[in-house]
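Recap for those who missed Tuesday's class. We walked through two folding examples back to back. For each one, the amino acid string is listed first and its predicted structure tokens come directly after. Nothing is annotated here on purpose, so try labeling regions yourself before you check the end of the notes.
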Amino acid sequence: MAVGIFDSGLGGLTVLAAAQERLPDVDFLYLGDSANAPYGVRDADDVYDLTTKAVERLWDAGCDLVILACNTASAAALRRMQEGGLPKGKRVLGVFVPLIEAMTERQWGDNSPPREVAVKHVALFATPATVASRAFQRELAFRAIGVDVEAQACGGVVDAIEDGDMILAEALVRSHVDALKRKMPHPQAAILGCTHYPLMQQAFQDALGPDVQVFSQGALVAESLADYLERHPDMLGTGAAGYLTTGDARRVSDRATQFLRRQITFDAA
């Protein structure tokens, strides 16, 4: 019985790895839309259409619950999908809320009014599409007041990671952090608002300095998922575990194996 995890490419493997570690008895079916990656430079309607198609593919495979491990998809498609009405017995969850709950020290499901929180200056590193959506700021405003968010669109980082060019990715991270610091010299916290970015977490931390708390999504999403499944065990579905890609299965398998440092074999979606 599998839970579906969807990403535009390989970045969602960081969420998958954390979920597998936290929930070793749960099977996962991963779908990466590598043929259309990256999503971060696409417009909102395009992201919505691609995300909907991918989620329906996972539903058809028996995954009643699908996690949008892609921040761009979560930003551009999740609310629209939920407001449009989901099929009976199907659920889609995103990756923003667990991270914001952790940063604002809220428990899951705490729907009390927004309040003052300790963190006042937050740097958000994300794809251009996620930054343009302002979805992070919208969700944060439901929970906290008085927080200054400075967003930095990190063009090129996802492409470099997908291509396996970590030297270029690290150089781009340093450049984007420098650009952010020109706008917000002293952030207290930094949000890695793309599931590819944890692969470069040390580069972000080094560029930001030791005094900045860096929030990464994998473990936070995994903990939130564990809590959700404890309350909704019927959402495990009937699907089989595995890895699917819309791209070149052999190439994607090689990249995934490199990222997770264990053998990963993708099949064509």
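Example two. Treat it independently of the first, because the proteins are unrelated.
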Amino acid sequence: MSFKKYIKAVGTGPKGNRELEENEVIDAIDLILQNKVTPAQIGAFLIGWRTKLESDNELKACVKALKKYVKTKKIENSLELGYSFDGRTNNPFLFPLYEDILQEFHKNNKDIKELNLVISGDLLQPAKVGITTKDMFDSLNIKSYVYFFNRVEYLKELSDITPLRHELGLRTVFNTVEKLLNPSLSEYGVTTAFHKPYVKKYLSMFKDYYKTILVVKASEGSPEVFKDGKYWKEVNGEIIEVPFSLKDFGITYDKTYENISLQEALEIVKNPSEEILKLAKFNIALYLVFANRVKTLEEAWERLN
């Protein structure tokens, strides 16, 4: 089918636009990833589709299309953390601290099934500057409990579109769907949403690929909590909301950065303050709850401390 038909479907305007069928989305993504259409056509389609606003069904079809290309390597007993592929500017990354925390936790809690964490990354994606998970992993030596999947290796076709995405300089459908493609075949997945309408979208998009999928209100497009928030999960077809407050766990962190550098971020995790360590532990507590290792945040916190 001519790719121009897809451009017309999403880029004609309010009167002429229509929702793409699942097979059309899959075909369009195939043509893009297989480099069978021109950069101009790809750009027109992605911008038109974003402007039209992708429907939930279209987003699910896009995930299905991308999953065909993902090279998998199973990480047992794992939870995938769906970080954004664009940059971080206002907070350090906490995940470099997770290895030691989980190692100590499992040493002291042998009745708890092991939990491994999976993070994916790539070169910086638009539409935000900053440091990435790949920048951090390339600078550190993390050997256990935290696994990094490089998209160049597990989904090169999408990674290869990075220069075009930078040329567009705008968020596209790929920014929405790329965070939880599960190359590790993890049982559990967690990503973040700041605006509640996206909670339903994320739960719908990814629930077919995990035993349990959760969405947490967190910072800068990553499932790392730096302030009070909430998380959502679907139970018997209903979305349940669970709030949490850091002060209930003795955490009073309130620091923010402006355009934090890679060196600053590395220094923070190499020489963490007491409050940063508390934050990292609190995030691990969330993940222990998300992966059904404990029943409550309070139990997780007590065991961690």
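Answers for example two:
The longest helix spans residues 274-290.
The longest strand covers residues 229-235.
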